[in-house]
Amino acid sequence: MAKIGINIATGSLQQSEMIVGIDLGTTNSLVAIIHPESRQPVALQEHNSSSLVPSVVHFGEDGSVVVGEEAKKFLVLAPQSTIFSAKRLMGKSYNDIRTNASFFTYRIIDDNTESLVKVQVGSKFYSPVELSSLILKDLKQRAEHILKTPVTKAVITVPAYFNDAQRQATRDAGKLAGLDVLRILNEPTAASLAYGLGLNKEEEKTIAVYDLGGGTFDISILKITQGIFEVLSTNGDTYLGGDDFDQMIVKHWMEQLGISEASLIEDKTLAQELRLRAEAAKKWLSNNESFSDAVNGHQLRITRSQFEQAVQGLIRKTIDSCSQALRDAKLEKDAIDVVVMVGGSTRVPAVKQAVSSFFGKPVNDSVNPDEVVALGAAVQADILAGNNKEFLLLDITPLSLGIETMGGLMDVLISRNSKIPTKAARQYTTQKDGQSGMRISVYQGERDLVKDNRKLAEFNLEGIPGMPAGLPKVEVSFLINADGILVVRARELRSGVEQSIEVTPQYGLTDQQVENMLLDSLTHAQEDIKTRALVEARTEAGQLIETTERFVEKNGSYLTADEIEATRQAIATLQSVIASGNKDLISEKTEALNSVSRPYAERLMDEAVSKAISGKTLSDPI
Questions:
Q1: Residue 19 — φ and ψ, nearest 5°?
Q2: How far apart are CA 18 and CA 36, in angstroms?
Q3: Which residues belong to the active site?
Q4: What is the spatial distance between Cα 225 and Cα 231, in angstroms, rounded to a whole number?
Q5: For 249-285, what is each residue's pLDDT tens digit?
Q6: Which domains occur in the chain, in start order?
Q7: pTM of the prediction?
Q8: DSSP-assigned beta bridge partners for residue 478
Q9: Which residues, 6 or more positions from 587, have their beta carbon under 8 angstroms from its beta carbon?
Q10: 500 vs 89, 229, 491, 589, CA distance in Å?
């Protein structure tokens, strides 16, 4: 909420720019803001409509795209071109969702099981990132319509148990929707903010946030002291939620009516009808003892006790996660002061009863469980806008991060539940004499062997000077920023050779891919991106010229006449093209100057040691 101006004519509050909170949900999504007058978080809605926007996208035969309630009616009319639960596919390969593929009534491509899943609609293919971006774009336009002001900045929430691939995919989706994603925020942390916990700076509380949404579950233990939110532990399942409760009801009816899974795969319309009736049954049974309906001549019946029996195993899984979260936090149940319920699926009475029984106290579900995460995201947006300086948020990384070492072992640099932002470093060395390169493979997980964990990225550190095995010292450092995104850097300490990578996960998009899609999807984006790239190229060229000239001036006596002349020519050529509007040409001549200066810079670096011994030093290496 950047600037607030008073309209003198009307006296109403106007804001030139809004930072919104967005809950990008599996089943429903919504936008919230801090109301400029009441200073309270509110979910945006038009007139008497719901604040919830169904996370459903329909692709029409004419190329049109509709999102939300309008798209929802096509779930039965056109199941193969209507996408739901796209969040469950974020950052996933086909192998990850293979056992649940029949749940989806649209076609998920499985021709390359190790790559990001693609959804096929007609002759077009969409990634989960693109599908989620369409939902975010609709939310953005909806918010702009309600607020009558541009919306370009957002805080987007994700389950605490989302891994790096899923967080990066969410950020990419926001970028494609034309949003500057200021923060990726864990949903439980957002929920605690929405409940106002920690507003009294004198109180100290330990809370459990039980979040059971449409597609994901997580439990987080947070400690709030003097307005500081600290996540002590988190646990959960990125593939467990209300969708699975619906699926258990569908399975109950399939057994009841003798319907095979093969027939549902064949008849997408029946599969969707059953799924939607199951969702309706789940909601009905929260307040009634039995549900009955009919689909295509099939009589559907289920009682509350049958439903509770069917989902007992799913609820037990969530309670097991609660136990693990307490163990990780090194706390007993009686240390929990408040149990907060989040997510529409927590309305199921059996869920409330199980959670209350486990923690030994009544649960707190006074805030609308569908809106609570978005409301908390709005509070975080307010903090980032500088309007609320009372809070400091500390988050954690949900899974251990490390690299592969000899024998395929996982060497953990950052343990799970480490507070973020955080960094860690460790030194390694070469295995063979004269080894000039080292492959850095980054993994995420808790197993001892990397083959049992998830590969996030891989790069090579090249140019290590030839030395006997064991002599080079390669420092590998991990830095996790406030969004939970990982940056890995490898540096050979003796020579200074360095390579770094921002982990764009194995199943994510590269920056170039994101930019290419931005060109197609954002108004005026093409011009803006070209301008930015040209400015960056010119800036890099100018900095290189300045550094090179200074180096030659101070170390000219160590260079040959040919080297000095070649450098001057390369500088002159680069200077002549900087004023042009050709980014590629500037980059080409920048690299040409680098190629001229690199050999003598490296030679002087090698000579520096012997020069230093005789009392002489070289100045400002490039």
A1: -105, 115
A2: 10
A3: 23, 87, 187, 211
A4: 11
A5: 999 998 888 888 888 777 878 888 888 899 999 999 9
A6: 4-218+367-394 (3.30.420.40), 397-506 (2.60.34.10), 524-613 (1.20.1270.10)
A7: 0.61
A8: 424, 488
A9: 537, 540
A10: 28, 31, 8, 24
